[in-house]
Amino acid sequence: MAAGARPGQGDSAKEPDRSADPAVEPAVDSAAGPVGGPAVAPVGGVPDPDASEDDRAPDGDGKKAARKQRPFWKELPLLIVVALVLALLIKTFLVQAFSIPSDSMQNTLQRGDRVLVDKLTPWFGSEPERGEVVVFHDPDNWLAGEPTPESNVVQDFLSFIGLMPSSKEKDLIKRTIAVGGDTVECAKGGPVKVNGKALDEPYIFPGNTACDDKPFGPFKVPEGKIWVMGDHRQNSLDSRYHTDEATKGFVPVKDVVGRAVVVAWPMNRWATLAVPDTFDQPGISAAAGLAPGAVGIAGALPLVLWRRRRLTGGRTAG
Questions:
Q1: Residue 151 falls in the annotated catalytic set
Q2: Rounded to 10 degrees, what is the CA torsion of 62, 63, 64, 65?
């Protein structure tokens, strides 16, 4: 080839044989793919249904192969751990099961009943109210001398996560009769009175009296404390029997675990534990007795201020 000659001119300029060059890619048809190769879908299109599995599999350019579902036996330990954590959280913050160990709450509760206790509302500042059945920690060795049932490792673990009631916790269950600020009393042969209002107590064990075995009061319940009694009055070492001790018979609100809301087991005894109507009678609340005076003061105060301002304004203007 002469110097300065251009390719394509003259007989000596020939096209190179591309078929033998492995570095040269075959021509590509935008619709059908590489000439002579398998069909591929355009970018953003639908894969060709006639393409093989290998053709449709993701390539190695940063794409991961589809994950295969793990066998159930591999996921089972994780599911168990999640279930145990949920059970522990429910027991700690929501509800907890307790077993009734004695007859002190008959006939409302029988020995061996399982009750569910609401532990959520106390987290929001809720305090026990009159008539509620509550579970509370032993305030001052009230359970001294009571036998503690033996348990095994499995029972201890299940009670720890809340799937079984604990046999070792020193807890009691009674009915709240009076709360902070109330005056409670009971004379022999008479009913229990709260702020001077006699209680009608149909929940008391048949044949029992309100307090003939241990009359008491009148006592004023300190703020932050409650007065509790069992429904089986002649078989309950409740607040009445601890008035000479450090607690004076009162249970600190901080020791209350929560309110028992339902009998969950056995199934034939399923029932809700509602507040008896006698605790809703008018005038039973200590605050209710002060309400009329408070309303009167609140109504008179604006009038007094208005009159005082008028008189002061008149003297200033004169």
A1: no
A2: -140
